[in-house]
Structures are given as C-alpha cells and as structure tokens.
Amino acid sequence: MDDKAYPYLLMPLDLGFTQLRNRVLMGSMHTGLEEEREGFHKLATFYAIRAKAGVGLIVTGGFSPNFRGRLHPLSAELSNHRHVRKHRHITAAVHQQGGKIALQLLHAGRYAMSPFAVSASAIRSPISKFTPSKMSHRQINNTINDFAHSAELAREAGYDGVELMGSEGYLINQFICQRSNQRYDDWGGGYDNRIRFAIEIVRAVRARVGDDFIIIFRLSMLDLVEQGSTYDEVVQLALELEEAGITILNTGIGWHEARIPTIATQVPRAAFAWVTEKIKQQVSIPIVTCNRINTPQVAEDILAQGQADMVSMARPFLADPEFVLKAEQNRADDINTCIGCNQACLDHVFVGKRASCLVNPQACYEKELVLTAVATARKVAVVGGGPAGMACAVAAAERGFKVDLFEKNDHVGGQFNLAMQIPGKEEFKETIRYFTRRLEQTGVVVRLGVEAKAEQLLDYDDVIIATGVQPNIPPITGIDHPKVIDYQTLISQQRVLGEKVAIIGAGGIGVDVATMLTEPAEHDLDSWLREWDIDKSLCHRGGLLPSSDYNSPRQVWLLQRRPGKVGKGPGRTTGWIHRRTLEKRGVKLWAGVHYQAIDDEGLHLIIDGQPQILAVDNIVICTGQTSVDNLSQQLTRQGVSVHVIGGAEDAGEVDAKRVIRQGVELAAKL
C-alpha cells in the first residue's frame, strides 16, 4: 500500500467501464428538498459541495418510478421528460466538481402513506395506516417497465448510475419475503418465484441503459423480522443479481418495521460489517457495507480486513461535507463526527420537514444559512461553553469577529459532558472534541474557569448569553433527604447508588439515567447483538433469534406524573428504542404518579388512587431544567447589545438540535 493516511479507503475502484476515485459511497438520504420549490437548485449545491470534497460515488434520496410507488402523494418521482430537466441541475453540478452520482429508484410498496399503496399481497405493515392492494400480473409487469423507464430517464438526466432499493422492507423486499408475499402464482410461493420480481427489474434496467452504466442493488442482507430471508436465500439472490447485470451490491440492514435499532447512536460502530464480510466471499462484484460507520479509521479497518470493497456513509456527510477531504489530508480530528442521533435528519423527514443535522445546522441549508465575512471585526463575548455557546462562538469567529468565550468550569461542553457518559451516547464526546478544535483554529479566546461578571463585558459590541440550565427541583416534602440526588450530580460525580432506585421524571434525561443504571457489565459488539436477539451465526430466518430479556440486578422505577406511555424519550425514530431497552431490562414504567413525600421509608406516592411506598435506596430527580441567566438584564440596563440563546433562553427539555442551530443562526445575523 502507498503512504496515504487511509490507503484502503482512498484507493480507486475500477468498475471496468468507469473508475471511482475512492471507496466512499455517500449513501442515499431523503432530504425533503426533493419536493420543495427551488429544491433541486439547493440539492445541486448540497451534492456539489460533497463531490468537491472527494466523495467517490453519491447516491440520491429515493425517487419513485411511478405514482403508486411514492412514499406519500406529494413525494418525488422520476417518470417523464419534464422531471429530467430538473435533475440535470444536480448532475451537472456534481460532474463539474469531478464527482459521480447515481439516482436511487425506490417504490414504497405497502409503506406508501396513501390509499394507493400496492404490494405483493394485501397485507398491511405494522407501521402503516393503509392496507395495500395486491398487485395484478399487469401491474407487476408495468412496474418492472416503470423501473427500467426511470433508469433510462436517469441516464438521460446525466446520472452515472441508479440504485435499485431492494431492502429496508420496500416493494422489492416485500416480494422477496414470505412475510409480505403470500401469493401462489409466478410471483410468489417458493423462493425462486419470490425473487423473480427483483431479477426481472435488474434485467429490464440493464437492457435499457446499456453496459456502461452503474446499477447498484441494495440487498437486504439481514431482514431482522419474522419470516425474513435466510442466509442461503440472500446468497442465492446475490448471485442471481450479479448474473442479471448489477455493477455493485449494496447492503441493507433491517426493515423499517423491525423492532431492532440499526442506525441509532446506541448501535456500536460498524455493527453489521460482519454480515457483508460473509456475503462478500460468495460474489465477485464489489460489495458495500453500511450502518454506523462515522470515522475514516472505522472505514479503513473494514476495508483493510476485507469485510467489504466500499463503505457507505450517509449521515456523516450531513455532519461534515468535507469528510473525505479531511481524511485525504490526514485531518481526522477536524471532522465533525455524526453522532447517530437522528434528531435533525430522519426525525425531520418522517414528519415532512427538511432534513438537517444536529451538529451541523448548515446541512441542507447551504444556500440559506451562510456565514459571510464581515467588513468590521467587532468584539463579541460569548458567556457559556456548552453546545449553544461553542457553536455560536465558532460561527462568529468564522465570519471574522473577535470572539472571547467565558466558561466558569475548567472545560467546555456543557450538558454534552453529561450526555457522553450515558451508555450508547458516548459519541457526544466527538462533538466536544470537534468544537474544541474549531475554537482553537478560528482564534476564539477561551477563558476557562472564569465566571463572567457584568463589568467584564461592558466593552464588547455584542454579548451572547449561553449559560445553559440547571436541574429543576420539584417541591416534594423531604426533597432534601440524603436518599435524593439530582441527575447532574449523579452523572458528573459518578455516584454509586443502591440496588433499588426510583427516578422521578421520565423525559429524555430520566430515560438516560434509567439506561445508565441498568446497563449490562459487558459492552462489546457480541453482547449488544445478544441483547437485541440478532443471530450472528445467520442460522435463523431473518437473522433473528428467539426474543430474550436481560433483567438488571438493580431494580429501577421510572415515574412520570402524566398518564400515558412512559420512557419513550425524545426522537420519533429513536423513542421506541429507549422504551424497548428499558422493558427488556425489567425497568418498571409507571405513569399517572402523584408524589407525596420522601423519608427514611422511601418514596411515598399515589398511583391509581392507591397510596404506596417505594422502599428504595435512592431517588434521582430528573424533572427538567431551569434557565441560568444572571447577566442579560444587568447588561441591557447598561446599554450593552445582549442576545440570550440555548438553555439560558428556554430550558424546556434539553434540545441540542435547537440550541446549536440557534447559536449558528445568531452568529450569521450579527
């Protein structure tokens, strides 16, 4: 190998008729720009920035080949020549930067959020509102033709290839698995018939686009649902896809309806590379691995060990568009690492909002949230070195302001210093590392161990108050009992608690504390796979072991005042993971609780109208936060230009997505 920092990652890949400049595939992500007015111009900028920074091959978000395949009635579609003109903005912009780009063709099948949904069989998915219609033979043949026609239009639009979405439980996957295909004709029954739809699509596409066009097939290698494919079936399909003419085999892990996390922060890095490694031994075309690959070293290790030929990273290119460039320049410490939170990307897309990124709010807003250089370098003070303060200080310094950051503690990071100590949230330390590095690189003067006073701030042109939050302590009789501890003290001082613990407050912080207190002693990949019933031997159908639970030796009660579900935590796409984790560990989730008192006997409460005493050793207070701002009014009275952001402005539920965006937006407006 040569002397590059990441020689395997940066090695070109020869596809015969074309060459990719490295082994990095920017995986498909729907951004919401696909449906916005002027969205294609914004998408062109979004993709071009990543292409300029060296991505080997970009894959767009999913476009349906026909109306019934749309995820919802207004979703993007590529099926006629009017669509082609818009797509040329994207392909031209990417090619101008020396990049290559493929369009993903995705038919939602029974996942379509409309009464027009169709599938192999009329079986509603557990996450859908609509029962699909069973496709007729004519509809099946027309859909195959629609895929081929859309691929031909993609070539006309200037794309270098297409990706056929055959995983994650979408239409092609629905034909493959008996779970959703209970037909007994030429398109169902035995496995050979169930995979016929996939094979015929590939053949039809190859016939339309010719031999010098990339066809990627995203194959579900681990369904993680009942009645999913076996390992032998996956291998059989991979070989038949290769014979039918695909160029690259991409990996899909888990259906959307699977009750197993596959891309959230809790998932260990490169948790599924072993699956791709096993399939790779069976095929001769390049194979791509994916899921929770977020640093150059993780990607390099996968390729060096022969687990894949390429690595797919999607959200890491939201977090840092220059990921590849920084790897090429051996600047891994300068990468803004994806923390797998899903809060600004998937959570947004699933409610019809534009995607972005918690750690990089400029993602998908490249043409709107612009940090333009200032003509005059005014003096700016930022008080508080948490996420909001760090983001604001860095963005202001990037514009050319002279920035001083005051932090009363001996380290920056704020609430992220607590978050990174929660099992499954260790990635938050990467965000602190990134912003600490950027503070240094942009010339921000960081004054640690300094609690800023009003008189120190009078000479600044602008003062940003980002002093964060402190725990809210509820007015419960006996709240000052020695049994009681607030979440901040518990985590920051790493206190050891007893065997029976009650947690008052079941928001995101309460869920995190319950997770931390019940975490198993083992933390390696194999133990995580066992906890989630994933069959690493691939002997069970769908890669799914019989369900099992881990009962923590510590007994924990997670309590909330309001009735309803307990323990969901924040996040549309991750809340269920938190709840399922706690259920599997035996945590008692109680709602509608009225707290009466705390004394030597324990926690006195009323639930379902009945008084009870929880004889616990400790009680952890997780009842939200209150803002900390002792400066803004003083400074305003003295005529100073003051801006209050982050938790200091609105404590609420701790929301890093909101406060980081607020910090950058303020810096852009100064």
TrEMBL record:
Residues 379-636 form the FAD/NAD(P)-binding domain. GO terms for molecular function: 2,4-dienoyl-CoA reductase (NADPH) activity; FMN binding; iron-sulfur cluster binding; metal ion binding. Keywords: Flavoprotein, FMN, Iron, Iron-sulfur, Metal-binding, Oxidoreductase. It comes from the Bacteria. Its EC number is 1.3.1.34. Its cofactor is FMN; [4Fe-4S] cluster. The keyword Iron applies. It is an enzyme of class 1 (oxidoreductase). Gene3D superfamilies: Aldolase class I, FAD/NAD(P)-binding domain, NAD(P)-binding Rossmann-like Domain. One of its GO terms (biological process) is fatty acid beta-oxidation, unsaturated, even number, reductase/isomerase pathway. Transmembrane segments: none annotated. The keyword Iron-sulfur applies. Residues 9-333 form the NADH:flavin oxidoreductase/NADH oxidase N-terminal domain. In the N-terminal section; belongs to the NADH:flavin oxidoreductase/NADH oxidase family. This is NADPH-dependent 2,4-dienoyl-CoA reductase. It comes from Photobacterium carnosum. The lineage of its organism: Bacteria, Pseudomonadati, Pseudomonadota, Gammaproteobacteria, Vibrionales.
